[in-house]
Amino acid sequence: MTTTQDPAAAAERCTPEFRRNPHPVYEHLRDNQPVCPMKPPHGIDTYLITRYEDARAALSDPRLSKDMYGAMDAYRRIFGDSSVALDDHMLNADAPKHTRLRKLVNSGFTPRRVEALRPKIQGITDMLLDACPKREAFDLLPAFAFPLPITVICELLGVPQDERSDVQTWSTTVAQTGFSEESKRAQQQAEESLHRYFSDLIARKRSHPEEDLLSALTEARDKDGGLTENELVSTAFLLMFAGHKTTAYLIGNAVQHLLSHPAQLRAVQDDPELMGRAVEEVLRYDGSVESATFRFATEDVEMSGTRIPKGSLVQIAITSANRDPRKFDSPDEFDVSRPDNAQNAHVGFGNGSHYCLGAPLARMETQIALTSLLGRFPRLAFADPAQEPAWLQVPFPAFRGLSALPVVLEP
User: Fold this and answer.
1) What's the domain of life for this entry (predicted)?
2) Of the four, 15, 101, 196, 201, which is 20 to 30 A from 406 by CA?
């Protein structure tokens, strides 16, 4: 078994070049050290898993715990004390707590509830596209890709319209902060603001409940003690944060790659029935979640000849697993007609008990967004075709997305 750190991989994951194109580094790791010990910028020794089969197994391995309280010292060093107050939710829990919390929230994401949102999502999409400049260059992310999912999740939760801008700003700050003291202070302030906001909103839902998910969760908290007050606040934050950030980046990535592959774009335009496959291919080829959230080993775990010692942090590189040639034929080719079958079963939404609860909603939002955008504006083009894509430059590769996407709807 090997435990030798790959210094090149550890260093390269922190460079602008890697953020622009991580795939060569991941290819190197899959071939040479598929379970790689490394020290990320936060300073905690971590094992990075890069192959598909290892990733799929790790995502559902009960020995790799999601309970943040089991690794609290490491958690505080990485995220700070302020994060703890917002992170007491199902994403950071194991069974039976995870089972209890997920069951309560699941009622808001049943197939019937999600499908019932379709007219609302279509209406929001049309409204946003109506407001976009038609013949001038503009950034599609703040004008369309971000407002769509955040409006949908705010509607689902019951966040008043005039309060959504602040919530989005705070959530963005939490997502994009680094490890400098200035970044940590900004993150702490944003997290404290979010905690105050959701605590206040829950109090308002208690006094004046409405037909929304947060009112229902508040009632569950008060009626039968289904969750604690801190779990309720943390769950509201999780749904807001996870419910818009990943979908927004997914929409941006989809537009980026469709415009970069004209033959694939034409295929979707000629056959709208391909849109479902196109979204799955974006999730596989360059999805918005680069690495799954932290796990830690509750005992020694061996994978691909490497021993992960008890107590170690573990990261699972979703982006790498979804390009593994051991699983996918021609994985570096973007192909919207790739069959939707077991051979092409990506892990863009995870695997096992922590499989993304909002996956059906994210799929629907992305399909509606792309179908409407390309249907109304078939000549959609990059504002400057020669310009390199502006991928996020963050020191902690959790999200894979663009920082800007300049386009022209009717060039």
Assistant:
1) Bacteria
2) 15
Q: How far apart are CA 129 and CA 376, in angstroms?
A: 9
Reported as a single tens digit per residue, the pLDDT across 213-256 is 899 888 888 777 678 888 899 899 889 888 888 999 999 999 99
Give residue 274's pLDDT.
95
- The terminus-to-terminus CA distance of the chain in angstroms comes to 57
Element (H, E) at 64: strand 64-65
Mapped onto helix, strand or coil, the DSSP state of residue 406 is: strand
Q: Classify residue 2: in a domain, yes or no.
A: no
Neighbour count for residue 30 (Cβ, 10 Å): 23
| Domain count across the chain | 1
Higher pLDDT pick, 42 / 321: 321
CA 406, CA 273: separation in Å to the nearest integer? 27
Q: Domain of 118?
A: 7-408
Greatest alpha-carbon span in the chain: 60
Q: Does residue 11 lie within any of the structural domains?
A: yes
| 347: CB partners within 8 A, 6+ apart | 52, 55, 56, 59, 318, 321, 322
* Residues shown for the chain: 411
Identify the CATH number of the domain in which residue 174 sits.
Answer: 1.10.630.10
CA–CA gap between residue 21 and residue 393 (Å, rounded): 11
Q: How far is CA 281 from the centre of its chain?
A: 16
**Cis status, amide bond into 96, omega within 30 of 0:** yes
> Under the phi-then-psi rule, with left for phi > 0, alpha for psi from -120 to 50, and beta for the rest, what region is 43?
left
Residue 324, CB-side half-sphere exposure with 13 Å CA sphere? 26
Specify if 161 maps to a domain: yes
